[in-house]
Amino acid sequence: MLVGVAQLCSTPHVAENLAKAVRLVASAASKGCKAVFLPEATDYIAVDKEQAVTLAQPIDGPFVTGLRQAARQHGIFVSVGVHESTPADPQRLFNSHVLISSDGLLAGVYRKLHLFDVNITNGPTLMESSSTIPGSQLVPPVATPFGAVGLATCYDMRFPEMSTLLRRLGSQIITYPSAFTIKTGVAHWEAILRCRAIETQCYVVAAAQVGQHTEKRASYGHAMIVDPWGKIVAACGENKEDVQVAEIDLDYLEAIRRDMPVESHRRHDVYTLSLQ
Predict the structure, then answer these.
(1) Which domain of life does the protein's organism represent (predicted)?
(2) Host domain of residue 232
């Protein structure tokens, strides 16, 4: 089955960002895709912490509702990263990854576990935890017509334990909606994504923010899909708004796992990895 990976440049203007996202959903559907994967923070990228908290909506707010309508209209699954407000903490939000079914229903919601708190030399200082509540659990893979989808977000890709557990839970696709900085993107984006695909023997789908969002914030782009052998099978390159398509071939995935049965070779007698 065909799926699309998208990139766009979100700004602080939520309604405009929704229009961009709906346009990409329609574009992917017109290409025969059963799913389209949108970036982290598709709803907005704010100028500061205060604006980020102010703009956040609940999952049943207008932004996700608009994408649910688009998913239903075009008969396509939609993966998207959004900021989720919570009445439990009005001064902070969740960085949430929402999977919407082709019927417009909420198929899964994952809240980002690993928060991006860094001070990059000759790059930006980003303290995600100042406005974001860390998630508290790994979400089991979501069954879809095109495979079992493991939900993660951006910085999570730097923690291979998470992807290994998602594979062990049954994932055939692991998806990382992202907003990578330019400096880290140039150095690590492709390398990390290909590693996660090779070691888990999963398709990895990484939608991406791209371009200049605000005066102080820009993203690397280069959204891509990597197959279970580590080959890049779709890539958006330098385009500011794009959707590229690749086939998810589960027979091919199973052949790779059968020929190189990495999971059965793990030394559980020597080391362990498990959910808490």
Answers:
(1) Eukaryota
(2) 2-265
Catalytic pick among 9, 33, 112, 128: 112
d(CA 79, CA 77): 7
CATH number for the domain that contains residue 239: 3.60.110.10
Residue 40 domain flag: yes
Looking at residue 121, what is its pLDDT? Answer: 77
Tell me whether residue 195 is one of the annotated catalytic residues: no
Task: Out of 33, 154, 202, 236, pick the active-site residue.
Answer: 154
3-state secondary structure 126-151: EEHHHCECCCCCCCCCEEECCEEEEE
Q: What is the side-by-side strand order in the sheet with 173-175?
A: 142-144, 147-151, 173-175, 203-206, 224-226, 232-235
Residue 70: pLDDT above 90?
yes
Angle formed at CA 138 by CA 135 and CA 144, multiple of 5 degrees = 120
Classify residue 273: in a domain, yes or no: no
Reported as a single tens digit per residue, the pLDDT across 5-20 is 999 999 999 999 999 9
> How do residues 84-118 score in pLDDT, each as one tens digit?
999 989 999 999 999 999 999 999 999 999 999 98
Sequence length of the chain is 276
Q: Count the Cβ atoms, other than its own, within 10 Å of residue 32.
A: 12
| 171 vs 189: CA distance, rounded Å | 21
Residue given tokens 């990390």 in the structure block = 192
What integer pLDDT is reported at residue 264 of this predicted model? 94
The answer as to whether 274 is a domain residue is: no
The structural domain count of the chain equals: 1
H helix count then E strand count, the chain:
7, 16
In this predicted structure, the answer to whether residue 228 has a pLDDT above a threshold of 90 is: yes
Given the residues 9, 33, 40, 84, select the one marked as catalytic.
Answer: 40
d(CA 228, CA 253): 6
